[in-house]
Amino acid sequence: MDHIEIRRVDYQYEANERAVTALRDVSFGVAESEFICVVGRSGCGKTTLLNILAGFLSPTKGDVLIGGRAVSGRGLDRGVVFQDFAQLFPWRTAQRNVEFGLEMKGVPREERAKTAQRFLGLVNLESFAGAYPHELSGGMQQRAAIARALAYNPSVLLMDEPFAALDALTRDEMQRLLVDVWRETRKTIVYVTHNVAEAVYLADRIIVLTPHPGTVKAEVKVTLPRPRDPLSVPFVECQKDVVGHLR
Hints:
The chain has about 250 residues and is of the alpha/beta class. It contains seven helices and ten strands. The strands form two sheets. It has a six-stranded mixed sheet, with helices on both faces. A four-stranded antiparallel sheet has the order 2-1-4-5, covered by helices on one side. A hairpin with a 4-residue loop joins strand 9 (about 205-210) and strand 10. The protein is globular. The model has no long low-confidence stretch (mean pLDDT about 95).
């Protein structure tokens, strides 16, 4: 059985006194420890789908299950990382941000600190544990956000274009870091992006959504060995395959 099951999901919302269908009949599964990227043109419902997985939105129709249990709201079985740098609490240091989910679970202070330090080390931020968000670069803030999402040990990590606002070199560095973190933790990851090259670099499998309304047009399995070379012929050929489904 898949770790995540998305079964014939529709999502509608009201806009200008009319019903708009953002997602229609979306179905796919995600295996445990699989890294999935969801791509598509603007308006295809990528972020809406992620928000449904996170429990921030409820589908108009259909079901979402994680670990065999229906998603009916937010839960500590899911960690979420957004694009916005402001997702960290500005009044907390990097370490105290990472400790937040552990506090919500009632973990004792000493254990919280030890766990936070471990995950800050995993994202190469251990020397900035006492820094506040405004003292960190954008890439460092995203690393802290990833550490915070992982520290309370969710089974699933949901990521909504977390590196889109970063400069190209920092984005490349963060992609490499994320692959390393995934290898270390073996979390199930669903990652939304509009960047096809990023999807090919990161994913085991790419879900392509069509826009207006969003539905699954194709699933592309990425069999390239890691670490992946974005300049290699097989990498470029895989990109072309995904782009072909987006047209």
